[in-house]
Write a structure and sequence with these properties.
By secondary structure, the protein is α/β, with parallel strands linked by helices. It has helices at residues 28-46, 87-96, 107-122, 145-157, 183-199, 206-212, 271-276, 340-346; strands at 5-12, 51-58, 76-83, 128-135, 160-166, 202-205, 227-233, 243-251, 264-266, 280-281, 287-288, 297-299, 306-309, 317-320, 328-331, 334-337, 354-356, 375-376. The strands form six sheets. Strands 3-2-1-4-5-6 form a six-stranded mixed sheet, with helices on both faces. Helix 1 (28-46) links the parallel strand 1 and strand 2 (51-58). The longest helix is centred in the first third of the chain and has 19 residues, at 28-46.
Length: 377
C-alpha cells in the first residue's frame, strides 16, 4: 500500500510578492508558484486517496483560520483544508491564490496553523507529514524564543519535515547571494535558518528549487521478482554433475512512462433546476444560457455487449450473455468451434527456468541485445 502523505503549502501573497528582481520579468509570486503548481499538480496527477494536501495563504487581505481571534494570526487564510485534491479543487485554488495588498502577516504563525491542520488530520496515524513555506521574507516575524522552541519541539516530536524556500534567499551551496539586501529580509533569513536547523528542516533559495524541477523524478517502487527458481548449468534430470543454484531476479531499472489520461464527463445540474432556470432573456433581448457546473466531473464507465443475427429479434440482432460464448477459429468463411478439452491438448506444457546453455566471447555480444530493462539477480 502506498504511504500516506499530508503536505501543507504556505504561500506568501503579500504586496511585495508582486515585485520582480534579479532580471526576472515575472513577479516573485509567479516565480514561486512555478514550483508550487508543479508539486501540487504532480500530487493531483497521482490520483491517490492517500496523498493529501492543504494550502495556507500568508499576508492575505482577509483572515480565515481557527486562531483568527488572536492578533498574531491576522492576514492568514486557509485556502484549502487538508484533503484529497482533484481537478475541481485545483481550479478553485488558482482563483484563490492571487496577489494581495497586505504587508503584514507572520510566517511563524502560519507554520503554527499548518502544524495544527496536520495534527488534526493525521492524529497519531502513520503519515508522512510535510510543511512547505514559500516567501520573499519581507514580512515581520514573531521571533519570541519560547514560541520558536515550542514549534521546534512539536515538529520534531510529530516527525514533520519543514521546508522553507525563499525568493532571492542567500544560498552558499547554490552559489547565490543577493546584493543590497533589505535589513528586515536579512534578519528573517537568519530566523528561518535557525528554525530549520533546530528541527532538522531544509532551507534554500527558490532559484535552486525551480531549476531542480527540470531534473527527472525517480520513483522508488516495491521490488517484485520477475523470476524465482533454479539457475542451472546442464540438465539435472540427465547429468548428476549439473549445477543448480536457487536465484531470484529483480528489475534494477525500469522505464517511467508518461501517466495515462483518464476520461471524465461533465456532470450537469439536476433536471429540475435546469428547467427552472434554463433560459434567461436579458433587457436587450439576448438569450442567456446557464453555465454548466464545471466543478463536478464524473468518471466515464464503459460496457460491452454481444449480439448475434436473429431475424425474430428487434433490429435483427439478439443480445447474448458472455457466458454463452465459445471459442473458435475462423477458417475461410466458416467458424470452427474448439472445445476447452481440445484446446488443452494443443497447449505446450512448459515450466519457468533460467538455464546456462553456453558461453560466448564478450566481443561477440551485440549492443542491441543489451537494450531493455536492466536486471540483477
Amino acid at each position: 500500500m502506498a504511504e500516506k502523505e499530508a503536505t501543507v503549502y504556505i504561500v506568501d501573497v503579500g504586496t511585495s510578492m508582486g515585485e520582480n528582481h534579479n532580471g526576472r520579468h515575472e513577479s516573485n509570486l509567479d516565480f514561486a508558484m512555478t514550483y508550487v503548481w508543479d508539486k501540487i499538480t504532480s500530487t493531483v496527477a497521482l490520483d491517490r486517496k492517500t496523498a493529501l494536501l492543504g494550502v495556507i495563504g500568508l499576508r492575505t487581505d482577509e483572515t480565515a483560520n481557527e486562531l483568527e481571534s488572536e492578533e498574531s494570526f491576522e492576514n492568514i487564510s486557509v485556502l484549502q483544508e487538508i484533503s484529497n485534491v482533484l481537478l475541481p479543487e485545483l481550479q478553485l485554488l488558482r482563483d484563490k491564490i492571487v496577489l494581495s495588498n497586505a504587508k503584514s502577516g507572520d510566517a511563524i504563525s502560519a507554520i503554527v496553523i499548518a502544524i495544527q491542520m496536520i495534527t488534526k488530520q493525521c492524529k497519531k496515524l502513520k503519515y508522512k507529514r510535510k510543511i512547505i513555506l514559500v516567501t520573499d521574507g519581507r514580512g515581520a516575524l514573531d521571533t519570541d524564543p519560547d514560541s520558536i522552541t515550542e514549534i521546534t519541539k512539536k515538529i520534531t516530536q510529530d516527525d514533520m519535515e519543514l521546508v522553507i524556500l525563499g525568493v532571492d534567499f542567500d544560498d552558499p551551496d547554490f552559489g547565490f547571494k543577493e546584493e543590497d539586501k533589505d535589513p528586515q529580509k536579512a534578519q528573517n533569513e537568519e530566523t528561518f535558518t535557525a528554525l530549520t536547523d533546530s528541527c532538522g528542516g531544509i532551507m534554500g533559495t527558490m532559484q535552486a528549487a525551480v531549476e531542480e524541477l527540470g531534473m527527472p523524478r525517480l520513483k522508488s517502487t516495491r521490488p517484485v521478482p520477475s523470476y524465482k527458481g533454479l539457475l542451472t548449468l546442464g540438465d539435472p534430470a540427465i547429468y548428476d554433475s549439473a549445477a543448480c543454484i536457487d536465484v531470484e531476479r529483480y528489475p534494477r531499472t525500469m522505464i517511467r512512462r508518461p501517466m495515462s489520461a483518464s476520461q471524465f464527463v461533465q456532470r450537469l445540474e439536476p433536471a429540475s433546476e435546469s428547467i427552472q432556470s434554463s433560459v434567461t432573456v436579458s433587457g436587450d433581448g439576448d438569450i442567456e444560457m446557464p453555465d454548466a457546473n464545471i466543478s463536478d466531473l464524473s468518471n466515464v464507465r464503459s460496457s460491452r455487449a454481444y449480439y448475434v443475427p436473429d431475424q425474430t429479434a428487434p433490429g435483427g440482432k439478439k443480445e447474448v450473455s458472455r457466458d454463452d460464448l465459445a471459442k473458435g477459429y475462423e477458417y475461410g468463411r466458416t467458424a470452427v468451434h474448439i472445445s476447452e478439452t481440445d484446446e488443452n491438448v494443443t497447449k505446450l506444457e512448459t515450466q519457468a527456468a533460467l538455464e546456462l546453455i553456453g558461453l560466448i566471447p564478450w566481443a561477440n555480444v551485440s549492443e542491441q541485445s543489451q537494450f531493455g530493462n536492466e536486471r540483477m539477480g
